[in-house]
Design brief:
The protein is 46% helix and 9% strand. It has 294 residues and is an alpha+beta fold. Strands 2-3-1-4 form a four-stranded antiparallel sheet, covered by helices on one side.
Length: 294
């Protein structure tokens, strides 16, 4: 069969020339001696007697956990040290009657004593205004204290200025608690009244109790409406039930009317198409002169 093919096609079926033999680059095959493979039985004894000086390698997760625990421990130690050194009654910077002192927080860092005095002096005579600043940098820490001459003026400012704006920022005011409330701790020592409201367990519990009481009140109102001392409550209940039943009936009637209207339109279109087809078959070429029904 192949003898009938022309030479150009026979060249396509010709085998390729053999590869040229090259010596190995490292060791000749006849001179190569590989290591003998043995079992692991002789290493079992080493596994049973581990090295006492071996230190395991710490993984990334273990390192993160260790650093987290160290930071928490350092924070707890700083809080304890701060509580031991914190004594507002012996602080030389704190002066004035604690029951006439107003605490102002969430201030902008450029708010000064003059700004606070201009905002609060309309409520009464002010004896002293202090914006707490950092000891090293002198930068404001965002809160301060205002000492009024009378307790009534302080309470009036407390009621009116909570949530007011100073330099386009809402502030929060409160009475001084460091010298008036026993075992009080500021926020920077783990206490205070600040923070996100949804992280406070007491507020969450109060909110849950409020919703439960509101649900109980709603049940009581429905029960009173149904019972009613003079029977009127039952009539109101029946009237609401009838209104719901009639409303459902009206909605069903509207759906029925819409369905009937769609059926009529469909029948009208079908009859029109049948009439047009009948005229087309009867008149032939004169179909274009016939009036079309619509």
């Amino acid at each position: 069969m192949t003898d009938k093919l022309p030479p150009p096609l026979l060249a396509l079926f010709a085998p390729r020339p053999p590869l040229r033999y090259l010596l190995p680059t490292d060791v000749a095959p006849e001179n190569r001696h590989t290591a003998r493979i043995s079992g692991v039985a002789k290493f079992v004894e080493l596994l049973n007697t581990p090295d006492p000086n071996y230190i395991p390698v710490e993984t990334k997760a273990e390192e993160n956990l260790r650093r987290k625990l160290e930071r928490a421990q350092d924070h707890e130690e700083r809080l304890k040290e701060g509580l031991r050194n914190w004594n507002p009654k012996e602080d030389p910077h704190i002066r004035g009657d604690p029951f006439t002192t107003l605490f102002v927080s969430r201030l902008t860092y450029d708010t000064t004593e003059d700004d606070l005095e201009n905002e609060f002096r309309r409520y009464g005579s002010i004896e002293r205004v202090r914006v707490v600043r950092d000891k090293d940098t002198g930068k404001s820490r965002g809160y301060g204290f205002i000492v009024f001459a009378r307790e009534g003026d302080m309470r009036a400012a407390y009621k009116e200025m909570n949530g007011a704006k100073i330099k386009n920022r809402k502030i929060t005011v409160d009475v001084e608690r460091g010298r008036t409330v026993k075992s009080w701790k500021p926020r920077w020592l783990g206490g205070g009244l600040g923070g996100r409201h949804y992280t406070k367990a007491a507020i969450l519990k109060a909110s849950k109790d409020y919703h439960e009481r509101d649900r109980d009140r709603g049940r009581d109102r429905d029960r009173e409406r149904y019972r009613g001392a003079s029977g009127g409550g039952k009539r109101d209940w029946d009237r609401d039930r009838d209104r719901d039943r009639y409303g459902d009936r009206y909605r069903r009637d509207d759906r029925d009317r819409d369905r009937d209207r769609r059926d009529r339109e469909h029948d009208r279109d079908r009859d029109r198409d049948r009439r047009n087809d009948r005229y087309r078959r009867e008149d032939g070429d004169r179909w274009s002169k016939r009036p079309r029904y619509s």
